[in-house]
Amino acid sequence: MGYSLPMFPLSNVVFPYMLLPLHIFEQRYRDLMADLQTVDEPEFGVVLIERGWEVGGGEERSDLGTVVRVLDAEEIEGGRWVAVTAGTRRIRVTRWLSDAPYPVAQVEDVKDLEVSDEADTLRQAAFHAVRKVAALQAELGEPGAPLDFELAADPAIASYQACALSPIGPLDAQRLLAMDDPTSRLWELTELLYEQIGSLELQLAAG
């Protein structure tokens, strides 16, 4: 069943179960935040800007994204907003409706497939790969995931959490978000992370 939803195109990918802090200064999204204060379930959709810029409109947008829930929001000096939001579920845009006063689209929820028998093994592999990358980044003095992070026991939720913790580019992140199979998502992420591990180990060896 489709429904309409206000949208916030961004230059980065948001995964379900991922926290997203926002500092909002563009007028159309100030209007969006003000309107969300009047509803019981303050939610909007986030999709990746595939080409173009976050400010000004006219960008090319992905059709698969994530609904985020506003956990806390405050209007600050100059009419800007600061907000803490969290991803909740995947959506697919079926039709863009309007960009005035802010983007709105007709969307439908996108469900994950059932996890396979090997999903828990792959969850463990992804966990260790994310932690290894984070440890190598710490040795190199680079920012990375906290070393004491935990992943949910549910492999589907864990697949999103691991993606959110990983230093991957927006195109790889979008490809992982678009996967319906959590097992495949965990496998692909782990493969990407082991490529990074090799690169980071070379950097350490080179001093």
List the helices and strands and how they pair.
Layout: E1 3-6, E2 19-24, H1 27-36, E3 43-46, E4 49-51, E5 60-61, E6 64-75, E7 81-98, E8 104-110, H2 119-139, H3 155-165, H4 170-177, H5 182-205
Antiparallel strand pairs: 1-8, 2-7, 3-6, 4-5, 6-7, 7-8
Task: Give an overview in words.
This protein is α+β, with helices and mostly antiparallel strands and 207 residues long. It folds into 2 domains: 108 residues, LON domain-like (Archaeosine Trna-guanine Transglycosylase, Chain: A, domain 4); 87 residues, no CATH class. It contains 5 helices and 8 strands, in the order ββαββββββαααα. The mean pLDDT is 94.
Estimate the mean pLDDT confidence.
94
> CATH superfamily name of the largest domain?
LON domain-like
Q: Per the principal axes of the C-alpha atoms, what is the gross shape? A: globular
Q: Describe the largest sheet.
A: 6 strands, antiparallel
Distance between the termini: 55 Å
Number of strands: 8
Q: Uncertain spans, ≥5 residues at pLDDT below 50?
A: none
CATH class (first level) name of the largest domain: Mainly Beta
What labels would you give this structure?
207 residues, two-stranded antiparallel ribbon, 27% strand, Archaeosine Trna-guanine Transglycosylase, Chain: A, domain 4, 8 strands, six-stranded antiparallel beta sheet, 2 domains, alpha+beta, 5 helices
